[in-house]
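Trying the structure run again after the queue cleared.
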Amino acid sequence: MTLDILPLLDVHSQISKPYITETQQQQQKQHLIRQRQNPNMTLDGYMLNHELRFIKKIGAGTYGLIYLVENIHTGRTFAAKMLLKQPPFKQGDPKDSSANKKIIQKTFYSYFLDHPCPQPNPIRLDYIQQQGHQCQFLMEISLHLKVHHHPNVMSIHQVFDLDNFAIVILLDYFEQGDLFGNIIDKQIFQNHPYDKQLLMKNAMLQLIDAVEYCHQNSVYHCDLKPENIMLRYNPNYKRPANSPIIDYNELHLVLIDFGLAMSSDLICCNACRGSSFYMAPERTTNFNTHKVVRNLVDMSQYHSVDVNNTTVNASNCKYLPTLAGDIWSLGVLFINITCARNPWPIASFNDNHNDVFTSYILNNNKDILSAILPISKSFNRLLDRIFKLNPNDRISLPSLYQEVIRCDFFNETTEEKQTQERRRHSHHHHSGHNHHHHHHHSKVVEQLEQIKQPSRKSNPQLFTPPETTGYNSYASEDENNIDDQYYTSENQSRQQQQVDIHKYYYEETKQTNSYTTLHSHLPKFNLETPSNSIVYLE
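Done. Tokens:
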């Protein structure tokens, strides 16, 4: 029927070329003029809708942009995370996402150039939370919404559908940036004018709280790192006497970017998911097929899970606890916070320059971290309870919380000093014992290159995070990460699912707030967190 109503075109005729009206010609000229005036194709000054104006770009990821936007009526600012529903295929080197980001920038710029007054449709948050798992580009938001009521998780205020072109997520804006920049550039923990350890514990306990809350709601972040933690910090704030360790007036952290998050408490042994510095060893190495690991970890404790339409073999038959990966990442974050360093570039036996990790695991050299980092023996023992090769052996979150409270990160207690003195007197005995203890690892070690004695000079990247701060705090990925190889197969496709979201739009005639706010006790920062009871427009 469609062919019957189409005009017959003669491809050889001059008149078969598309006809462009004079108005369209003028629009094309204006389009080219504006492009020449804005070679970087920024959206500054454009309108997102009738009340939100783009101020400046604050991040860019593999699938979209992050812009600071301002409500022109109230002056309130937000971070608008814009994700393309059908992002372009990666161009060039998979590890270099710069070309892809330029394409994405141009794509968004062209859209807003052609739509000076867009009218994005707000999507009901309850629908996304309940049904978003059916739609790939809503899955991240769905998991985020399940936990965004917690004070240590970024709040989502609204979600817009932009003409089936992109999804826009309206988030709180944290002007002071992410934890990475505040550790490396601003050095807030090292320069804190009061009790530095108390500030560090404040940060650590908030992170444990956030991960525990996510766990209780069946959400596992899977990409914990400083770039995915935003903060507000007041260096002039002085704690009251006997105040609790967690004090949001001093420091407030929130988790962002649930792009790699999962709802399952089990993850396949072949899943490589996260960012290299922070991934647990079971995310970098298939425990069920790696000979070295199988000699160290009894894989019979892990069960197989039947997955529909999946051929089960040795590489995918074992499933490990998802939470254990987040606990490992917390351990690396704690070293970031206390020492502004990373213990190793990646928790893998396959890296030829990974002397510290290899010695730590294979030689059972648990003192190596306290030898290369300025930390106490008690903190070193706590890290040992986190950095267990076997995921089932890692410390629980409640125990970790209590140990952080008790631990002195840098100073030895009197009891610890006495213990060290006794160890020195019995050094010969312990050396013989350790030789016997490690004898059963000899076959494992023979399968690797001979391990060199690690030193601070063995790898320039070993103890220091990337110096560049050209990362994107609000983005799904940043240029410093290895990109798509850390996405599991189910996340590699970003194709839109056939889910009708239009019936869940808010009526545009009603412009009242789509959420209620619970004002916290932080007047200095005017912090607002969505309450558990969200009021939706009908």
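The chain has 17 helices and twelve strands. Worth checking whether this holds up in the mutant runs.
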